[in-house]
Amino acid sequence: MKALITGASSGIGRDMAYYLASLGVDLILVARRKDRLEEIKQNVRVSVRIISLDLLIEENVFKLYEKVKKESIDILINNAGFGLFGMFAKTDLNRELEMINLNIKTYHILTKLFLQDFIKKDQGYILNVCSSAGFLAGPRLSTYYATKNYITKLTLAIYEELKHMHSHVHISALCPGPVSTEFNQVAHGVFNIKQMSSQDVARYGIDKMFQNKLIIVPGWSVKLGLFFNRFVPWKFSLRVSYYIQKRKYPYDE
Q1: Alpha carbon distances (Å) from 140 to 21, 85, 86, 127
Q2: How far apart are CA 1 and CA 108, in angstroms?
Q3: pTM for this prediction
Q4: Domain ranges within the chain, ordered by starting residue
Q5: What strands, in cross-sheet order, belong to the sheet with 26-31?
Q6: Rounded to whole angstroms, how far apart are CA atoms 111 and 227?
Q7: Handedness of CA 107, 113, 116, 118 (dihedral sign)
Q8: Closest among 137, 139, 140, 166 to 152, alpha carbons compared
Q9: Strand partners, 52
């Protein structure tokens, strides 16, 4: 088998690469930081192809597909993304547009192109790394939550389409809560609640993907939180979310 992973230089993407390699899966690793991808390549015993690209740029997303479309890829893992803490009226618009490009457009383009290929051969796995944020609204982290809502709901819709096609292609949404990665550093905030390790999330996500699980939520506390959120009014949920985010980023009002 062969897997393509975006955002593979750190965090969940990096640990998915290591875990898939331990299962004997060959890898195509995509990220901007080539040196980090080289480090992964040196530490695994499977075939690894490194592609250094900035997927913030739409043209590069199509270039990526053109580079690999003739390879026999069995697994697409869309993982590249970032967040930005702060009040919506004050956060940087250009940075938010970059986030929308990476968190939505890159996922959308690659999911569509690889899905079409997988459908033709009637096999393949797509794992979109979403977030528990994909089921919520996130004051003070609003654009990030909105991007994850888009990808989560897109993944669910595609799943149902594939089901009605009787396709053997499988698509899953990995929806973790807080994970110990570089997310805080990039988003300029701090999690004040317990975080799962990226290794545990990566292993759990891959295992459940191979079991054809649609919604993959690591950790019982996150599962329970999402379950009980269904039964509370929207305004209460928003208020709780606001104060959770405020603890992570208390710097503006």
Answers
A1: 37, 6, 5, 27
A2: 23
A3: 0.89
A4: 2-248
A5: 48-52, 26-31, 2-6, 75-78, 124-129, 169-174, 215-216
A6: 28
A7: negative
A8: 137
A9: 31
Q: What is the 3-state secondary structure (H, E, C) of the chain?
A: CEEEEECCCCHHHHHHHHHHHHCCCEEEEEECCHHHHHHHHHCCCCCEEEEECCCCCHHHHHHHHHHHCCCCCCEEEECCCCCCCCCCCCCCHHHHHHHHHHHHHHHHHHHHHHHHHHHHHCCEEEEEECCHHHHCCCCCCHHHHHHHHHHHHHHHHHHHHHHHHCCCEEEEEECCCCEECCHHHHHCCCCCCCCEEHHHHHHHHHHHHHCCCCEECCCHHHHHHHHHHCCCCHHHHHHHHHHHHHHHCCCCC
Give the residue from 222, 238, 63, 60 showing the smallest Cα distance to 141. Answer: 238
CATH code given to domain 2-248:
3.40.50.720
Q: Residue written as tokens 């697994």?
A: 75
Location of structure tokens 């989560």: 152
pLDDT at residue 189, rounded to an integer: 45
Query: CB of 21 within 8 A of CB of 75?
Result: no
Least confident of 6-10, 150-154, 209-213, 218-222: 218-222
User: 210-235, pLDDT tens digit by residue?
Assistant: 999 999 999 888 778 777 778 777 67
Instruction: Calculate mean pLDDT across residues 28-43.
Output: 96
Q: Write down the mean pLDDT value for the chain.
A: 90
The answer for 178, left when phi > 0, alpha when psi is -120 to 50, beta otherwise, is beta
Phi-psi region of 124 (alpha: psi -120 to 50; beta: other; left: phi over 0): left
- The one-letter amino acid at 176: P
